[in-house]
Design goal:
The protein is mainly beta. The strands form six sheets. It has a 52-stranded parallel β-sheet that branches. Strands 1, 3, 4, 6, 7, 9, 11, 13 and 16 form a nine-stranded parallel β-sheet that branches. Strands 32-33-36-39-37-34 form a six-stranded parallel beta barrel. It is extended, with a radius of gyration of 43 Å. This is S-layer family protein.
């Protein structure tokens, strides 16, 4: 704060005893310190004292004054540190009164250690006279003065200045002893002679002489900031050379020369600039020459950020000796007189993305009365075949204005010659007129990009074509005036306009788009062979037809097409037709958009606003799908389609015409999901998919005539059996109900996301109409209900899913058949105490704590998305109980439920915290899947997937339990296959009561896979005979996880426990080129056997090991354990590490390998045998 001494002197001393390492201060200036001793002297002393025997370190400071103001008649400032750091630091300090400019002031660091340094940075500079007094007094430690200033008298007294003769001064004499001077500031000197200053920077100064020369001293940089340099008759010359860092830095300065301005800077090593210019003004009667040489100059050997130049010629050159950037331009660069030439060069020594001449942020070059030349070059060094995305000339988001321009970019190794991207051209070079481009000197593989805002003029392009280009060059867009349309594109206002877009490019030229084409003719317009985009254009003709090139896409954006007597037609035969933000008008009554993609992709893509002001709109999109990829016949997600003419019809037909891949959510015939909007009098929407996915997805807000019942027609007829449709919540509920009640046939199961289209009262009414029974078929629609309670004799529903509901069939069966659609029952109780329960859907989900109970059979059949049965938690299971019948669960999930990657799909059947009971019958669970869940993790538990997935607490209780799990996923990398299995077991407890057969089969993964990392899974077999048959057909080597039976875990211990209680267990595992039984990757994975009963384990392989186990324990088993392994060419049985067996019989057999191999195991009271018959 403010400290005022109105009478007398002020003395302040601060002392710290430096006992421990750290940053401490003797006397410290706090925030806003302003000390005013109005009629006396000021003494400030700070000391950091070393305690005896303590050799401590740290950034300690005796006296630290930063951002402070001091005023007094005289001042004594002393700072000392006896250990480390600084004696005194005066940084950004203002001196006033008698001590202004450092007059009448002494500084000292006496008592400091020899390594201590000082800083003396006075606002406005330390006066030269005051500095000389301090020098004479001496200083004990190395002290840096931020800047010196000098009055006219001081210039003459100390620096040999004269207004009438040459002024030559070497800044090396400024310091001496322990003093170093960073810069001179506030120097105002005018002489009729020449000025030559060496070894000192300048700030806020003004020098005028016949000529002006500033030079860095030896290997020292030179900085000139906010300074005016004026050579009345000669040159202004600035130069500096450094071994490392920045050489010459000129910022915010005005330089004027009667002849030339010459700036040179060289950084011999490091990442610094040779020359950096920022927002200065240079005016020369002759020429301006700026040359920056660097090494690894990341921001350019020459860096120019803004500035004004006036000369006959302004020549800027930057060269980086090794990689990075030769020259970088940014900001507003104005040349008010003469020409501008900029060259950036790099020597390409190492691999990487480097640039010769680079446009930085906000580059705007304006050469108002001359020519512009920009050259960027990447040079190849002898013997160096370096690679990388190098660019000779890179101008992005730049503005160029000149009378004429020459742009050249070359790259001798790789990458691009020149890239002009989003560049605006003005003045004489607008639209590319009076401009040449070249990539001469580039390697043959080099490419160029020429993307001009508003388009490159057609005439300019033709001139460039005639001049030729050495490398393949893509033009972002071409534009054409009326004269250019007539001269180059055969246009006429009074006859048909036919133009083949194939003639646009040629040689090394490719045209990406036509823009700003405004053409009106009384004839027809037919543009064919269009392998391009048409944007920001307006075409009017009797009819308008745009046809894509044979195997090319066509894009039309921000464009108006008007057919005055005929129709508008856009067509592709093998490429995507993309239409975005267009206005269409057809006096003939029809605007047609047709696109076909013969291999993947999209037939027609609609985006933004599609406005049809006259006539109908017909959209036909077709795609053929190969492999695992997302495709659309028509993709109109988020599009707004407005067909506004009276009585106008919208027709949309999207087809996935062929499909050789598996299904996914992104195989769609017609996609109107997202926030799409439809407005027409009537609409006919058709979406088909021959094999997988969806026929149509509809979530459009309906407007205009489409709000009326009967105005919307939907169809997916022709779709495959497993294909479904979906209607979203943005679609009018009344329109959907009308279609249901009219029993509209759509052709495929159509799921609606609208909840409770019908309510409890409707169900009550339907039951009454059925004399106590409920039979309701919603046709092709699948509806969702919540909070519905149904009690009827028989219940037979088609197309329903329920949440938080209760369905009770009091005397008959309970049947829900959703055909190929999803069937979801969340927190919903099902009860048919005297009959059967039958659930059918593409996928079935039973979740929550509500029970499913039937007097007779319970049957669940899912044809494409699997069955998911999940209870609330481990203690509140999902109970499914049959009183006197069987339970049958069949889930098929091949090519279904893809999340958008190849690494996750759903299991055939998932049992999670579920209890299945058929005490008088059998339980059959069958699941088939091509599922996987990504890659194996060293320490994370993934919920893997397979034919059958078991997790949590699961119980099966019947006279005979059968689980058949099949994994049919294909693959050629084992890292993609290690998380899948015929049956996958996650951590939990799994009870099998009664005779049990578990059959697990995989084509490429593990037959039975224990996905337990740092946890356990327990299989309890009670009161019966149990078998586990696990087999893999995998032929892929290199994985310890893929086997008949195996683990996924890598590091953390996991245990697969088998417990028998009044039961027997026979395990048979079969591999092909892999092990029959494997421990996985971890040495800690353990097989454990316990309980009362006998257990036999058999493993076989052709080329792998029959049984390979590192950890096994049967100490808790009260019964026999028989282990038998066999292999044709591998080892029969391998027991290693932590195998602990008692009362066991172990036999291994191999035809040509080792029969039995044992190491590091604890085996007692057991029988061992091995045989190698070969």
């Amino acid at each position: 704060g403010n400290i005022n001494v109105t009478q007398g002197n002020l003395s302040v001393t601060g002392t710290t005893h430096h006992l421990t390492n750290g940053s401490y201060t003797g006397l410290l200036a706090g925030s806003g310190l302003n000390v005013n001793v109005s009629q006396g002297n000021l003494s400030l002393a700070g000391q950091a004292l070393k305690k005896d025997g303590n050799d401590v370190s740290g950034n300690t400071v005796g006296l630290n004054l930063t951002n402070a103001i001091l005023s007094a008649e005289h001042a004594s400032l002393k700072g000392s540190s006896t250990s480390s750091g600084s004696g005194f630091i005066l940084n950004n300090v203002t001196l006033e009164g008698g001590i202004a400019r450092g007059e009448n002031m002494t500084v000292s660091s006496a008592g400091s250690a020899a390594s201590i340094t000082n800083t003396l940075n006075i606002n406005g500079g330390l006066g030269y006279g005051a500095f000389e007094s301090m020098k004479q007094a001496g200083i004990d430690n190395k002290t840096t003065v931020g800047s010196l200033t000098a009055s006219q008298d001081e210039l003459k007294q100390y620096m040999n200045f004269s207004e009438s003769s040459d002024w030559s001064f070497n800044g090396a004499s400024l310091g001496g002893d322990n003093w170093s001077i960073a810069a001179l500031t506030g120097i105002n000197a005018t002489t009729t002679g020449n000025i030559t200053l060496t070894g000192m920077g300048l700030t806020n100064s003004n020098l005028t002489g016949s000529s002006v020369s500033l030079n860095g001293d030896g290997n020292a940089s030179l900085t000139v900031t906010n300074t005016t340099l004026n050579a009345t008759t000669g040159d202004v010359s600035l130069s500096a050379n450094v071994a490392n860092g920045n050489a010459l830095v000129v910022s915010g300065s005005n330089i004027t020369a009667g002849r030339d301005i010459i700036l040179t800077g060289t950084a011999k090593a490091g990442e610094g600039y040779g020359v950096s210019l920022t927002n200065g003004n240079m005016t020369a009667t002759g020429n301006i020459s700026v040359t920056g040489t660097g090494w690894d100059s990341k921001q350019g050997a020459l860096n120019v950020n803004g500035g004004n130049f006036s000369a006959q010629n302004t020549v800027l050159e930057g060269t980086a000796g090794r990689n990075n950037v030769g020259a970088k331009l940014a900001g507003n660069i104005n040349v008010t007189q003469g020409n501008l030439s900029v060259t950036g060069t790099i020597h390409h020594l190492n691999n990487g993305p480097f640039t010769g001449l680079l446009a930085g942020s906000g580059l705007n070059v304006n050469v108002s009365q001359g020519n512009l030349s920009l050259t960027g070059q990447v040079l190849k060094e002898d013997g160096k075949d370096a690679s990388g995305n190098t660019v000779g000339l890179n101008l992005t988001n730049a503005i160029l204005s000149a009378e004429h321009a020459s742009l050249k970019g070359s790259s001798a190794n790789s990458g691009s010659g020149f890239i002009l991207n989003n560049v605006t051209l003005k003045g004489g070079i607008a639209r590319g007129e009076n401009m040449t481009v070249s990539s001469a000197g580039s390697a043959a593989s080099i490419t160029n990009t020429l993307n001009i805002n508003g388009g490159l003029g057609y005439g300019a392009f033709e001139s460039m074509k005639q001049a030729g280009i050495d490398n393949k060059t893509t033009v972002g867009s071409l534009t054409a005036s009326q004269d250019e349309l007539k001269q180059y594109m055969n246009f006429s206002e009074s006859s048909d306009w036919n133009f083949n877009g194939a003639s646009l490019g040629g040689d090394n030229w490719t045209i990406a788009a036509l823009t700003g084409i405004n053409a009106t003719t009384t004839g027809n317009i037919t543009l064919t062979g269009m392998d391009t985009t048409i944007t920001n254009s307006n075409l009017t003709g009797s009819s308008v037809s745009l046809i894509g090139d044979g195997n090319a896409s066509l894009t039309v954006t921000n464009t108006t097409l008007n057919a005055t007597s005929g129709n508008v037609s856009l067509n592709t035969s093998n490429g995507t037709l993309t239409v975005r933000n267009v206005n269409l008008s057809s006096a003939g009554g029809e605007s047609t958009l047709s696109g076909t993609s013969l291999e993947n992709g999209t037939g027609v893509k609609l985006a933004g606003n599609i406005n049809v002001t006259q006539g109908n709109l017909t959209v036909n999109g077709t795609v053929n799908r190969t492999g695992e990829t997302n495709v659309w016949g028509i993709d109109a997600r988020d599009a707004t389609i407005n067909v506004s003419a009276s009585g106008a019809v919208l027709n949309m037909t999207g087809k996935v015409a062929s499909d050789s891949g598996n299904g996914s959510v992104s195989v769609v015939g017609l996609d109107l999901s997202g926030n799409s909007v439809l407005n027409a009098h009537t609409a006919n929407l058709n979406g088909t998919s021959v094999t997988n996915g969806y026929g149509f997805l509809l979530n459009s807000a309906l407007q205009g005539g489409l709000t009326a019942n009967g105005s919307l027609s939907l169809s997916s007829k022709g779709s495959g059996k497993g294909v479904s449709n979906q209607i979203g919540s943005r679609v009018s509920a009344d329109v959907v109900k009308h279609m249901i009640e009219q029993n509209v046939s759509i052709g495929s199961y159509t799921d609606t996301t609208i909840t409770n289209l019908y309510n409890q009262a409707n169900f009550t009414q339907w039951i009454a109409a059925g004399n106590g029974n409920l039979t309701k078929d919603f046709g092709d629609f699948g509806l969702k209900f919540s909070g519905i309670n149904i009690t009827a004799g028989n219940i037979n529903l088609t197309g329903t899913s329920f949440t938080n509901s209760n369905l009770t069939a009091t005397s008959g069966d309970l049947t829900i058949d959703n055909k190929g659609g999803a069937l979801g029952l969340s927190n919903t109780a099902l009860n048919a105490s005297s009959g059967n329960i039958s659930l059918t859907g593409g996928s079935i989900s039973l979740t929550g704590g509500q029970d499913v109970t039937a007097g007779k059979d319970i049957m669940l059949n899912a044809s494409k998305g699997g069955v998911n049965i999940t209870g609330q938690n481990g203690s509140n299971l999902k109970d499914i109980t049959s009183g006197s019948g069987n339970i049958s669960i069949n889930g098929y999930s091949v090519g279904a439920g893809d999340s958008g990657t190849d690494d996750y799909k759903t299991s055939g059947v998932t049992l999670n915290n579920a209890s299945l009971t058929a005490s008088a019958g059998k339980i059959n669970v069958s699941g088939v899947s091509d599922a996987s869940y990504g890659y194996v993790s060293h320490n994370a538990l993934f919920t893997s997937a397979g034919g059958i997935l078991l997790l949590g607490n699961v119980s099966l209780n019947s006279t005979h339990n059968t689980l058949d799990g099949r994994d049919v996923r294909q693959g050629d990398r084992y890292t993609q296959l290690e998380q899948q299995g015929g049956i996958v077991i996650n951590p939990g407890t799994f009870n099998f009561i009664g005779d049990t057969d578990i059959n697990a089969h995989s084509e490429n993964g593990a037959g039975l896979l224990a996905n337990i990392i740092g946890s356990d899974a327990t299989l309890n077999f009670q009161n019966g005979n149990a078998t586990i048959n696990a087999k893999t057909n995998a032929t892929l080597s290199g994985s310890s996880v893929i086997a008949g039976i195996s683990f996924t875990s890598w590091v953390y211990k996991g245990s697969l426990k088998f417990n028998v209680d009044n039961a027997s267990l026979a395990i048979n595992a079969e591999g092909n080129n892999v092990n029959g039984i494997s421990p996985g990757y971890s040495y800690n994975n353990t097989y454990k056997f316990s309980g009362n009963g006998n257990v036999s384990v058999h493993g076989s392989s052709q080329t792998g090991t029959g049984i390979s186990i590192r950890q096994m324990d049967n100490s808790g088993l009260n019964g026999s354990l028989t282990i038998a392994g066999e292999s044709q060419s591998g080892t029969g049985v391998s027991l290693a590490g932590g195998v602990s067996l008692t009362n066991a019989t172990v036999s291994g057999n191999s035809q040509s390998g080792t029969g039995l191999q044992i190491s590091g195991s604890n085996i007692s009271d057991s029988t061992l045998s091995g045989n190698a018959s070969g």
